Each structure stands twice: as structure tokens, then as C-alpha cells.
Amino acid sequence: MDNEYNFPNIIGHSKVIVEIFALMKKAIDADVDILITGETGTGKELVAKEIHNHSPRRNNSLIIINCGVVSKEALFSELFGHRKGAFKDAVEDREGAFETVKQGTLILDNIDQIPSGIQLRLINVLDERKVQRLGEFILRDVAMRVVSISNQDIPRGIETGNFSKDLYDILSRFHIHIPPLRERREDIPLIAEHFYSQLCCQMPKELGGFAPGVMDMLQRYKWAGNVRELRNEILQACMLTPNGEHIQKQHFSRHILEQ
Questions:
Q1: Which of 5, 65, 220, 255 has its CA 20 to 30 A from that of 103?
Q2: What number is the average pLDDT over the span 108-135?
Q3: End-to-end CA distance of the chain
Q4: What is the model's pLDDT at position 180?
Q5: Can you name the CATH fold of 15-177?
Q6: Residue 224 predicted with pLDDT over 60
């Protein structure tokens, strides 16, 4: 694997993954906000963490917030904080993540699901580096880096009126798109061997590697779930393979065998 930029957790040597490495290096050097897009299971959060861990911010906090799993009110408070008495359950002043992370990195997962009422506030934070807690008029300086992640087509959300074009323009100033596994099939054997080596160390048995024909089968499959799906399949195959034997085709899921 071409590991020029020292990202050992991202496996591959295809042209597209080498281009991703180059973009990651530029993002680290520039210390800019980033938008990372790609299908589910492509490793977007891993890329975000690797950028943080190699950046000058690596000794500061890393906070991850999933914008799609909490209510609008809870997400507002989680991001921006609030003043005591701002709402019924606000029994004390609270910092939001933009303040708490200080000079670290804030990862906003599922940014495409952020409520429209919060989008304008987020534009102001990203542009001005100032945050206003709920219930306050004070503007507080913040110094974090923001990495936004999406597995959805944000431009489509703009067309339907669910996502602000102004916010997208700000987020996409530095954009890294992670290609699906089916567009870098030459990386599949490396990734499969990587997961095999990891998982074998966790199992109380010896396995003999992959039988002939298995890798060809894995490279033909479309991998709708991408790298995450591949890892799950390697895990299943390792569990089903008897001690001392090779991993065979029949140790994988039926839909892979019947492709």
C-alpha cells in the first residue's frame, strides 16, 4: 500500500484512494473546515478522525455529534449551549459543543439532516467563529475546526428546499468525496486481508487464509454496504471456518455466492 501520508487505517493503493490521501494531507496542512461525503460504509468518519489525529489539533478534543438522532431543541442546545432559564429544563448555564471542543475538532455527522432552523446559526458560526447560546445576546469567540459528514445528496436537498445553499457553499469550500468500494475493486484484496489479519488475532483458532477463488468472488460483488459490509462478511467467514482450514466461498452470505 502507498502509505506516503501515514494513514495506516485507510487501506488501498488504487488511484482514487491515493487521491483521497492527497486531499487529506492538504486538509491537514490548511487547517480548514471540511465536508466529507460518500455512501454509507465508505469510511467517512474514519477519514475525519485521521485528519484530526494528524493535524496540529490532535492534542485537543475530538467531539462527534450525530445531527440526525436528536430533536431540534436538543441539537440546538448540544451545539450552541444555553443560559439558565432559557427553557423549562435549563437549570444551569451550559456550554455547547462549539465552545467545549475549544481548539479541537467537531465532527457533525449526518449534516444533511440538520434542521433548517439551525442552519442559519451554523452559517454564522462557520463564517464569524462566534457562537450565541440560547437565551443570551452575548457572542462568544470559538476556535474549533468543523468536519461535516453526509451520505446523502445535499444538492438534491437544496432543490427541495430542505438545505440551505449558503450553508452548502460554506461547507463545501474543502470537499472530500469517498468513492464506493465498487469503484476501487483493486483495493478489495488488500482490505480483505487487512480485516482477516485483525480478526484472526481476536479468535482462539488458526485459519489458513483464503481459498483459491474467494478473492475473485469478493471483487465481483457490488458491496452496497461498502467497506463496512466487507468487514462484516470477513468476520462471518472467519467465525464459520473450522480451525486450521481455509476460508471457502460457502462461508460467505448467500447473496454474495449468488451474485
A1: 5
A2: 94
A3: 28
A4: 97
A5: Rossmann fold (3.40.50)
A6: yes
